[in-house]
Amino acid sequence: xxxxxxxxxxxxxxxxxxxxxxxxxxxxxxxxxxxxxxxxxxxxxxxxxxxxxxxxxxxxxxxxxxxxxxxxxxxxxxxxxxxxxxxxxxxxxxxxxxxxxxxxxxxxxxxxxxxxxxxxxxxxxxxxxxxxxxxxxxxxxxx
Length: 143
Description:
The protein has 2 domains: about 1-105, NAD(P)-binding Rossmann-like Domain (Rossmann fold, 3-Layer(aba) Sandwich); about 105-143, no CATH class. Helix 4 (about 55-65) links the parallel strand 3 and strand 4. The strands form 2 sheets. It has a 3-stranded parallel β-sheet with strand order 3-4-5, with helices on one face. Strands 1-2 form a two-stranded parallel sheet. It is about 45% helix and about 10% strand. The chain is mostly helical. The chain is built from 7 helices and 5 strands. The chain is globular and about 50 Å long.
C-alpha cells in the first residue's frame, strides 16, 4: 500500500479479513475504497495488484484479466506449472497486461549483479542473464 500511495495511485483495498481492512483504513485508504470482495471494485479500477496467497492467483488473476484490468501478481505467479500456464493462457486470450512482481528488481544487490554480468565478470546461465536483463527494462504495468 505504501509504495502505491507514494506513486499517487487512487488506492482501493479488498480483503476478506475485517482486521486487514481496518488496517488499510488506519493506513490512510479511504473507507469508501476498502472492500471485502475485490469483484465489487473491478469496474472502478484500472489495474489489480494481487497480494494474496499463491494458491488463488490463477482464479483471481483470471477474473481481473477477463474484466479487462491490468494485473500485477506478486510472486510466485502460481504454485504449479499447469496453474502458471493457465494464467498465461488467460492473458493471451484477453490480450490484457500481466506482470509478475520481483521484489529484488530495484535492490542494490540486483544492480551490482547486473553490472558484473554486463561487464563480463561472470558467465551465468542464460536464464539468469536473461532474467536480469529483462528486469532492467521498463515494462508497461498499468493500463
